[in-house]
Design a protein that fits this description.
Elements: E1 5-13, E2 16-21, E3 24-30, H1 32-41, E4 47-51, H2 63-70, E5 77-80, H3 86-94, E6 99-102, H4 104-108, H5 111-120, E7 125-133, E8 144-148, E9 153-158, H6 159-169, E10 173-178, H7 190-199, E11 204-207, H8 213-221, E12 227-230, H9 232-235, H10 241-250
Parallel strand pairs: 1-4, 1-12, 4-5, 5-6, 6-7, 7-10, 10-11, 11-12
Antiparallel strand pairs: 1-2, 2-3, 7-8, 8-9
Helix pairs in contact: 8-10
Length: 259
């Protein structure tokens, strides 16, 4: 059985790490390079970096920040936000990232998934999914709808159908974020996570809502996620990565040890 991954997420705006609730009311919480170094030294398996306003502002990702983070850590590093073309992917990978995450651009141009997979390999292409519960309907049979541009625009696309299509196009991994749970620290959206995890064969990273180690245990077991993204619970010092891993290990979840 593969070890479950614990992945700190750095949402970056204007060169600084920021955190909000349900994609709103963001506050500055630190320097992304120093935070990435701290989490790397404390046992993170991977770091995720999102330039959270690049897509909505219609600008390129801040490649200088990507390069500085990549020079600081020696674990896999995934980058998303403002990546619209294969050339954008190439720039980010050449700056030192191991993976690129595409979200809004993939929905607007699904061929970008297959183009990226062909150019760099499936393992480099992460499908970012921002999902909102809107209730079951003819067009949204799962009850979960895709949204883009930092949660600002509903797309009328069913989340499960999109996940399955993206896998068929060549996505190598899914980072599944519940906007309803994001930043609340009340727990992951377990129903959504289990729904997607059970219906695709590629790894699924659960995102949105982590507030205590019990939430990770729940989503990695009952939710069947392969990894869990964390932010607020470590950004504000409530828990450390070693503490979280020790709790998961005691609960029967296989994790890479930091002890």
């Amino acid at each position: 059985m593969l070890s479950k991954r614990i992945i700190p997420c750095l949402d970056v705006r204007e060169g600084r790490t920021t955190k909000g609730i349900k994609f709103k009311d963001n506050v500055d919480i630190g320097d992304p390079v120093e935070m990435a170094r701290f989490y790397y030294e404390n046992g993170a398996e991977e770091i995720v970096f999102y330039d959270i306003t690049a897509s909505s502002d219609k600008r390129d990702i801040m490649i200088d920040v990507v390069r500085r983070v990549a020079e600081t850590i020696f674990i896999p590093f995934s980058v998303g936000g403002g990546i619209r073309t294969v050339d954008d992917m190439r720039r980010v990978l050449l700056a030192g990232a191991e993976k690129i995450s595409i979200n809004s651009a993939a929905i607007l141009n699904p061929d970008l998934i297959s183009q990226g997979a062909k150019a760099f390999g499936n393992q480099c292409v992460v499908l970012g999914m921002d999902v909102k519960f809107t209730g079951k309907s003819h067009s949204i049979p799962s009850g979960y709808e895709m949204v883009i541009n930092g949660g600002r625009k509903q797309m009328g696309i069913d989340a499960l159908e999109w996940a399955q299509r993206a896998e068929s196009l060549g996505a190598g991994e899914i980072c599944l974020n519940s906007i309803d749970a994001d930043g609340t620290q009340n727990g992951y959206e377990i129903v959504l996570t289990e729904l997607i995890s059970s219906q695709v064969s590629i790894p699924v990273i659960a995102s949105g809502g982590a507030g205590k180690p019990e939430h990770l245990l729940d989503v990695l077991t009952r939710g069947c996620a392969d990894a869990a993204l964390i932010a607020s619970m470590v950004h504000y010092g409530a828990y450390s990565i070693p503490e979280i891993k020790s709790f998961l290990h005691a609960g029967g979840v296989k994790v890479r040890s930091t002890w």
